[in-house]
Amino acid sequence: MPYAVDSPRVVNISDLRRLAERRLPRAVFDYIDGGADAELTLRENCRVYDDVILRPRNAVAIPECDLHVTVLGRRLELPFLLAPVGSSRMFYPRGEEAAARAAGAAGTAYILSTLSGCRLEDVKAASIGPVWYQLYLVGGREVAGATIERARLAGFSALAVTIDTAVSGLRERDVRNGTKELLGPSTWARLPFLPQFLARPRWLAGFLSDGGLMSFPNVVIPGQGPMPYADVAAALEQSTVSWADLRWIRDVWRGPIVIKGVLTGDDARRAIDEGAEALVVSNHGGRQLDGVSATLRALPEVVGAANGRAEVLLDGGIRRGSDVAKALCLGARAVLCGRAYAYGLGAGGGPGVARAIQILRADLVRTLKLVGCASAGELDRSYVEVPAAWLQYK
What we know:
- The chain is α/β, with parallel strands linked by helices.
- The protein has a single domain (about 5-390), classed as Alpha-Beta Barrel (TIM Barrel).
- Helix content is about 40%, strand content about 15%.
- It contains 17 helices and 14 strands.
- The strands form four sheets. An eight-stranded parallel sheet has the order 4-13-12-11-10-7-6-5. A two-stranded antiparallel sheet has the order 1-14. A two-stranded antiparallel ribbon has the order 2-3.
- Helix 1 packs antiparallel against helix 17 (about 340-370), helix 14 (about 265-275) crosses helix 15 (about 295-305) and helix 16 (about 320-330) crosses helix 17.
- The protein is globular, with a radius of gyration of 20 Å.
- It starts with 12 loop residues before the first helix and ends in a 9-residue tail after the last strand.
- The model has no long low-confidence stretch (mean pLDDT about 95).
């Protein structure tokens, strides 16, 4: 592993974040790092893990820990998957392929965003592990249906439908960094925001050698080709997913469907009634509606509502292996990591992603041994103390 992302320079995910901030232009780093509005939910997603107290069983000898879990019938060697992160090719050349390759090598799954810069076929080919496709209805049903069929033929094993993007959240950092102007047609409007890119010559060289401003090759508009990289907010607003859409999506896909963006028991039950085999408790990393529940706090309600009828995963705020353990204790089958590996990708490409996975794995093994549990699959609520208010929902 390159020295830049290896220990002792990089000990935790925060160290990868620091290196990513140093390497990336401000607009690109803030795209990874930022959230909506006042970023209350963004911060709370991480802070809330402090409210769950571990209850160790000491004097327990555990020579080795078994980290494997089964998700949608597939064995994963780690209880965390790499979440969909749009525009990862901006962070590092062929970014989605690099992340998928690292996930497969570690024995876990990668989830590809609709808004990616690499062809879905190339991303699937890069990984030896399972790859899921995350779906937005950008471009309408005809475009989405064609992409779903491409994903099915390429061998993607699940479809993750995101339901929390009725409009795009207001990401104030993007406004201040001139994202709209940088993507607009006016050269004069761009000029004030260009120095941030010129200040990162190594990133800029890699970005230009990788083709510069990308299009979205998995959103192919009939008669036009791949959708250009532009203001995605308008495209999302015109492609809101409704419960009725799940019926035709299910008919086209004919495979496991995961609903991402569930925060309440009511939505959990509705998603299951519409055919979801798994739910992801997610608030979009605090990037959509600010002020909603942190995902760990919402997890017990969703697990209770699912009542074993669907697998429940958690997305949001994972920065340490102990965070993974706490989510598993509260009923998550596995968790999704987004920013944790995106920082690694921004810091050092594929090796940075591999280092993020390595950090979380080592953290989790250490946590399991210290709480006296030999297997990730054996973690349950007896290993944690939880605020009573979290358990009031049925």
